Every structure is written in C-alpha cells, then in structure tokens.
C-alpha cells in the first residue's frame, strides 16, 4: 500500500505540474516535490515500480538519480544570497592594536580601549555598554571571542546606543529582548556591525539615523517590532544615512518592514541579503536616492498588502521624491502582496531590470514616468533555501537564516 501511495503521489505531481504529455512545464514549482517523491519510490525496493513515471520524468529533464532538471536548480537572478563581497570600501577591517579581554562578571564598558584596540569578550551575558570611539582609520572593535555566544541585554532607547560615535566595529554580538531598539546609531560615522544577532525587540531591531559611512554585514535580525504596527522603526532601518552598505544579512520573521532605506538616505547598496517572513515589505526604498538593490532574495511577506520589494516616497515623511534607484538581479516570490510595487511619490531615474519572479508571479509590465522596466522574467524558485532558513524551506521561520525568493507583483 505504501508503494502504491507513493506511485500515485508521483503520478499526480507529474500530471498536475507538467501539463500535457510532452509539454515542458512553464515553471519549476513542481520539481522539488516530484524529485522527493521519486526518491521515496526508488527506496521502496521494487526496481520496476513506476517505470512509466520514471520515463516521463526523464523526458522532463530529470536525472536518472531523480535530481531535478538543471534549469530548476539554477538561479538566473545571480549568485545565491549571503555570498556577497563588500563593494563600497566603507569598512577596511577590525582594529589591529592591543587585545583587551573581558570575562564573565566584568564590565565591557570598563575596558577603556584606545583607537585600533580590540575588546574580546568571553561567552556570557553582559550589561549594556557605550562603545568607545576610535580615530580616523582606526576602529575600536568589540568582538565575541572565537566560538563564544556573547549576549548583551539592558534598557534605554537602545541596548547598544551609539550617539555621536565614530570608528566603532561591533562583531559577533547578540542583542536580545530590547524594550525599544536593540541597536540604535545616531549622528555617527564609520560604524561597522558584522555577524551580529538581534533577537527580539519591542520597536525596531537596528535603527540607524542621521549617520554616514555605515557597514552592516552578516547579521541575523528576527523577532523585532513586537508592538506590531504601533512600533517605531523597522527591523533594519536606515534613515537619513549617507554612504552605506548592507549585505549578507538574514532579516526575517519581524513585525514590520524588513530592510527599510528611507527619508533621504543616499549613496548606498543593499545586496546579497535574504529577507522573508516579515510583515512587509521585505525590502523598502522610501524617499531614498542613489541606491543599488541587487542579488537579494525576498519572499513570504505576511500582510496581504505588502510586496516583496516596494519603492515609494511617503510625502508626510520626505520631500516626495525617490530617484536613481536600481533594482536588479533579485529573486522574489510568494509574497502576500505581490512582487515589486511602485507606490506613491515622484519617481525619477528608477531602473527595474533582470529580476526573477517565481511561484506564478509576473514581472511588472509598466510604471509611472521616470521608471524603466526591462529584462525581468519568471523562473525557478532557488534551491538551497533550507540551508539559509534552517528549516524545510517553505516556511517563514528560521534562526540565523536568510531568505531566498522570487518577487511577486502587487
């Protein structure tokens, strides 16, 4: 009975997803399921079981070992996320001076580093502290010791609250259960945040305001905006920031927007991130200018009106203009409110090109004046999602995970 059930399931999968007897499927949403069921059939022990189904799958491009067609395992949208290389030259690397060690029961704030020094923190839970600034070209680095989980907790507007800071590098730190923001950076410059985790906040996770030369790389931001729509800021928010790079981050399962570049932020890049399971949009450009958004995966927004990627200039918060934005080589799918949406505002110099849309989504067909749309296609959902999300691949959960996806059109 088990073998019969598997045979039937494979037959249904092939019939439902591959269309007529010799038609090539229009998309690849069926391939992973068919491959998984075929593997179970092969393990049933009868070499003759489902011979006709095997033949049909071979016709569709499956390998003899049950592997999906090559076109269903590659991503036309460019490299997988989380494999980006810094391209803006904002962050030159950590300090190379004296290494000051901090252990359990000690105060990180009492380390008293000089520019170029490294404060290395042993595993444990520590109170919030105010980082010491470095000097031109010399970061002060606060980093977790190799293999250590370093958790920072506390109160205030930000557990890690940098105001008027410069040349500070935070590396490998976990900031947990913030009453407002987990990390807040205001009126600062040359700040680098790498390999961090933000695990829960009532308001935004990482709020960066009125600052310059900001580098955010390799962070996992989840569980923020617990207040919901009344929360201030977003999971990873850049407001009035000049010169920035946001790459290789996982931003997921948050109560508001995922990555939000807004209100006059300019001269930046958002690339090779995975954003999924946020209320949405997963990536939002609002009143920004001169930003390159590329090679991101964005999928599974949870609010019905929220797309994977949205461009707008909300007039109550900006001058109503959004300009010189390029959205390219992204993969977007399965968002509750569609793939890419062009909302309110005056658009100029907007290019949406060479993006891939999956799960039945269609590329946008046109836009307002000032928007150029070309070269966008429908295509396969990327493989390897589970390695990013840490789960089966089609849920929105996952710690230290990033998303993949094709965008939907709203």
UniProtKB/TrEMBL annotation:
One Pfam family hit: Beta_helix
Alphabetized SUPFAM superfamilies for the sequence: Pectin lyase-like
Official protein name in the record: Right handed beta helix region
Region (Disordered): 62-84, 357-410
UniProt organism field: Pseudonocardia thermophila
Compositional bias ranges of the Low complexity kind: 386-404
Record has Signal as a keyword: yes
Signal peptide as annotated in the record: 1-23
UniProt keywords, alphabetically: Signal
Right handed beta helix domain boundaries: 182-357
InterPro entries attached to this UniProt entry: Beta_helix, PbH1, Pectin_lyas_fold, Pectin_lyase_fold/virulence
